[in-house]
Structures are given as structure tokens and as C-alpha cells.
Amino acid sequence: MTSIFQRLRTLDERTFDWLYQATSGLRKSRLAFWLSRSGDGPYYALFALFSAIAAIEGSMLFIQRALLAFAIEIPLFIGLKNILRRDRPWLRLKFKPVIKPADRFSFPSGHATAAFLFAALVIASFPVWAPLFYGWATLVAISRVALGVHYPSDVIAGAILGTSIAALVVAILQ
Q1: Which residues contact residue 44 at a Cβ distance below 8 angstroms, ignoring those fewer than 6 apart?
Q2: Three-state secondary structure string covering 89-135
Q3: Distances (CA, A) of 43 to 94, 120, 125
Q4: CA angle in degrees (0–180, nearest 5) for 14-145-31
Q5: Which DSSP state fits 39?
Q6: Smallest Cα–Cα separation from 16: which of 97, 76, 82?
Q7: Which long-range contacts (CB under 8 A, 24 or more apart) does 35-39 make?
Q8: Residue 2 burial by CB count (10 A; 0-12/13-18/19+): exposed, middle or buried?
Q9: Tens digit of each residue's pLDDT, the chain (174 residues)
Q10: What are phi and psi of 105, to 5 degrees?
Q11: Which of 30, 63, 113, 147 has the lowest tally of Cβ within 10 angstroms?
């Protein structure tokens, strides 16, 4: 069993190396930085505020879902990080990251979790936005690898976690 986990870790590290090299242009142009920043918390609140101000049909249900979903997501991903305690790539592979992350642990990615959670909630309330928001969430996740602060498995786990929390909340608040 240990050899399976070691193989998965090796695959994850090799995939990280390949993606990190392949995304050097995103780092040089600072696009990765801006994509990552677009996944920061205040922007979610701004979107909710604008949807309410514009009186878009479904915006109040969207806001209720978002409040419940983030109330579940934030302590859950922080708890998982502190239980699993996986070092970030730059700590394990000994290189200087492009940005300074908020903490030393990487699994799961909080940015990917929140971005996919938010995208799924937006899509449940405003389906016409599906391609835009899932595309954006994917770019946020990729930017975290490009910046050297997450392995691919961190952002994949975050995407699954965020989407799952959103699905749960949508089922609860219909």
C-alpha cells in the first residue's frame, strides 16, 4: 500500500514540475498572480452584492446558499490542511515561490475549493454563466500551481471539495 502512495506522490511531483515549467509565461506576465488574486474572498462578496443590487432573479437564494456554503467550506478546508499537514511544493522541493502563501500547508487548495464552490453556486442560480465561471475556477486552480504554492492534487482535491459542498448546499436550500 505504501508503494501506491509513493507512486502517486511521485506522479504528483512530476506533474507539478511539468506544469510549473509550462506556465512560466503566466508568472512572467503576472497573469498567474492576478488569476490567483481573483479567487480571494472579498471578490465573492462583491459579486453577491452586485447580484442583489441589480435585483437579478435568484440572487437572494444565491446569497443564502453562499453564506451557508462558505460557513461549511472555510473551517473544513482549514481543518483538513491542519490534519493532513502536507508541505507546499516550494518547501519540499526547495525553491522560492512567486507569492507568499497564508500558511505552510497545501492540501487541499483553499483557493481552488472556494473558486469551484463559488462557480457551482453561481451556476446553480444563474446557469447561463456556467462556461465563464467554471473556466475562471479552472484558471484560479492552475494559477496556484503556476505560482508554485500547490501540487496538482491539491487543486484537484479543492475542486472536488468545493463542488461537493456546493451540491450539498443546493440540495439543502432549494
Answers
A1: 66, 70, 114, 118
A2: HHHHHCCCCCCCCCCCECCCCHHHHHHHHHHHHHHHHCHHHHHHHHH
A3: 32, 16, 18
A4: 135
A5: T
A6: 97
A7: 35/139, 35/140, 35/142, 35/143, 36/99, 36/111, 36/140, 36/143, 36/144, 36/147, 38/136, 38/140, 39/111, 39/112, 39/114, 39/115, 39/137, 39/140, 39/143
A8: exposed
A9: 578 888 888 888 888 888 888 888 877 888 888 888 888 887 777 777 777 676 667 678 888 999 999 999 999 989 999 999 988 887 777 777 778 778 888 899 999 999 999 999 999 988 888 888 899 999 999 999 988 889 999 999 999 999 999 999 999 998
A10: -100, 150
A11: 30
Mapping DSSP to helix (H, G, I), strand (E, B) and coil, where does residue 167 land?
helix
First to last CA, the chain: 42
Helix 152-172 and helix 2-22, axial crossing angle in degrees, nearest 10: 100
pTM, to two decimals: 0.89
